[in-house]
Write a structure and sequence with these properties.
Recoverin, domain 1, two-stranded antiparallel ribbon
């Protein structure tokens, strides 16, 4: 008899993702009420943005970004890194020495004053996204509006 493999999909995947989102929302709430980052402007919006970013990178919704997820994330951003570079990036952020980046550590990195390679790359990518070019036809101008 063939062994049944337990693949996740459909409802189970949705439940896992929902559970992770609830957990991340609780962590965001801790950061909002904790007072440690109260001087950060637009804190609620930034936390929501970071949550979405983290969930995108945490492909298996384990609550941690491991080295392979970080590798794929860097490749998506066009910033492919070697195994050693990835380990260094994790070590800069990983405060509890698990070899992964937990959401709490991710927020500390993104909101904190200390700089890390990963933070710089993510901030650079965010700045690149913000500058969208206007779409459609240029506005009509007359001679009076020219310099």
């Amino acid at each position: 008899m063939a062994e049944k493999t337990n693949y996740q999909g459909g409802k189970a995947y949705g439940e896992l993702k929902s559970r992770q989102e609830n957990e991340l929302d609780r962590t965001n709430q801790e950061f909002l009420t904790g007072g440690k980052f109260e001087d950060v402007e637009d804190l609620a919006e930034r936390l929501e943005s970071y949550k979405k970013q983290f969930m995108e990178f945490d492909e298996n919704h384990s609550g941690d970004i491991d080295i392979m997820e970080l590798k794929r994330m860097m490749e998506k951003l066009g910033q492919a890194k070697t195994h050693l570079e990835l380990k260094k990036m994790i070590a800069e952020v990983d405060t509890n020495n698990t070899g992964t980046i937990h959401y709490h550590e991710f927020l500390d990195m993104m909101l904190g004053k200390r700089s890390s390679i990963l933070k710089l790359i993510l901030m650079f990518e965010e700045k690149k996204k913000e500058k969208e070019r206007p779409k459609g036809l240029p506005p009509k101008r007359d001679l009076a509006s020219l310099p």
